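To whoever is on call:

I kicked off a structure prediction for a single chain this morning and the downstream step that reads the tokens threw a length-mismatch warning. I double-checked the sequence; it's 341 residues and nothing unusual in it as far as I can see. Pasting both halves so you can look.
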Amino acid sequence: MKVLAYILSVLVATGLIIGGTFLILVQAPTDSSGLLLLAIGALCVFIYGPLILGSITSYWDVKKTGESRRYFRWWFGIVLGLEALGAVAIILYALLTHAPAWLPIVFIGAGVALTAVALLVGQTLLRHEEARPLVERPCVPISRREIVRKITIVAITFVATLVLALVLFTVLARGSRSAISEIGVQLSFAAESAFFAAALACILVTLPLNRRLRESVSRDLGRLRKMGKVVLRGKQLELDHDEQVAAAKYAVLISMVFPFQLAYITLLYIGLGIQQAQSLVSGTRSDFSIGLLIALLVVLLAFFPLFGRRIYRARKYAREHAELLPTDDVTSTPTANGLVR
């Protein structure tokens, strides 16, 4: 059920982004390309802010402990703050471009409604899952064979989507004189689709690992934050024995999840980059496309060292605290690269 909800949320968010962008472009004056970043930024905040809150409340118990409640309030405050900035941005955009008054009203109203719906759906999904008992599974690091299997799934998804998209666009281009009849346009559309599909596959293949990661901290959002401070940031916090074991399990699992998360971000951003490059080549909205391409590149370059450092720290912590894992797990102590021996 949760996997279906995740896929639906991604599809709905994507549809809202496309629809909102279309609405902005239809109402935008011809000389307002530089101001489009204000409207697009507000649109992204109003859609992805609620999506983040819904993901947190559906996956973690945000009321289990005082630390959980504080951490969720921190996230809630950030999202509300961003939505407030988004409201200012869309109002400013409407004033500067003389857009219709209903445009900011629709965007702000949609953001408020999506936030309420996301919190409601997230809590409903969590209650549905809590009806089932929490199962403690052995924290066995993923094997090389399993890593290869997951990578193979992503690669097959990429190739299959690329081939299917090329066939589809070739069929659509027959007898057409539009831009889609050009081979370069067909290739770019197909590559864009393949990168997006592979990015989604990266998320799906890590769902079992994410479930085990959540179980390692008993669905406690506060404990998750504490484990992150100890394992990923090197904080010297006082841990009882159960928390030390949880930290060791967390280190093993997060060192497996992070590489796939980095792959997801990379594939997604490459797909978005191709999308904007295609817009640049066609000569439409060049200022916006150049700005977004630069932003994507900067964020991607920042993520690589960030994830690399965290993966290194997680694997190091897992090696140094392997003796804390249960007896069944010690036989599968992670090696320097985090894989099972």
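Update from on-call: the warning came from a stale cache, not from the record. Cleared it. Sanity check on the structure: Residues 329-333 have pLDDT under 50 and may be disordered.
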